[in-house]
Design goal:
Alpha-Beta Plaits, Arc Repressor Mutant, subunit A, 3 domains, alpha+beta
Length: about 240
Amino acid sequence: MGRAFEVRKASMQKTANAKAKVYSRFGKEILVAAKSGEPDPDMNVALKKVIERAKANQVPADVIKRAIEKAKGGSTENYTSATYEGFGSGGGATLIIECLTDNNNRTISDLRACFNKAHAKIGVAGSVSFNYEHVGMIVIAYENEEEMLDALIMQDVDVKDLEVEEGHMSISVHPSDLHKAKCVIEELIPDVVFEMLEPTMVPNEYVELSGDDKMLFERLITLLDDVDDVQNVYHNVSNLNIG
């Protein structure tokens, strides 16, 4: 199977799988975007883009509305972004953890507890990310590669990779072109349903784990999923068994 398909498969193993986690994650992102400017998507480009991604991830309209209303009401909640990098217990496993937090000390304490329980190690900034690529990832049910590539190139979208596997097309673009690519695809396929529309971190190489290393890494991902401040986890392991 190709690299793009592996990316799509791995994306299903991110911590944002559970609906409650998805709603919480986008609720925070929408609140942050709304408070960074006008709490109106027609006047706030950043907010508009987050809402588009939320809708693509099937976040209900009432969840989106509540987050915007909270910002309009002068919510005192303030979140800052923080990114952490780390290593599994063995086998070359690495991961990148994106957080939105209102208490950095609490967040790092919670993350250290997860790593300790999984015999893993938090790394310093740059110790892992150099081996990942930041891309905008789109997944849709579509198979005409030539037509899609022509449409994207005609609109100057920087396409990194495009692949069809099992009836699904995975498209990776430069992160700044994610919104532009979305608009091109909607024009080409008016009734398109986005299965994924996200900025993401893609590892340059994947590894397969076995035995205790695999079990411990799965434990780590599960533990991180329970940390409220964690928004996304990206990793380079291709054979995890996590629902």
